[in-house]
Write a structure and sequence with these properties.
This is Putative GPI-anchored protein. This protein is mostly helical. 59% of the residues lie in helices and 0% in strands.
Length: 94
């Protein structure tokens, strides 16, 4: 599904912000996707799956300077992305 690559390209560089529960970045992003992209709710969560942990951002360049922490960062990235996808699914089916 070609939209999955676009979602990863758009969201992965900002996963730290999208997974931060202290802001509404994920909610805002999916609101814009649904409102301006006219995509049906749940499209990305039902079509874009790479495993039980969700999408992997390993092959997507990061734009945050804090991403230079190697293996430890990869673990936190996986946790953050799975949290992001959980929030996204909850928001899309709410």
């Amino acid at each position: 599904f070609e939209c999955c690559a676009a979602l990863k390209e758009s969201a992965c560089p900002y996963y730290m912000y999208l997974n931060d529960d202290s802001n509404d970045c994920a909610s805002t992003m999916f609101s814009y996707i649904n409102l301006y992209g006219k995509y049906p709710p749940g499209l990305f969560s039902s079509e874009c799956k790479e495993g039980k942990e969700g999408l992997s951002c390993a092959d997507v360049p990061q734009r945050d300077a804090a991403t230079a922490n190697g293996g430890q960062h990869a673990q936190s990235r996986l946790l953050a992305l799975s949290t992001f996808l959980s929030v996204a699914v909850a928001l899309l089916f709410h």
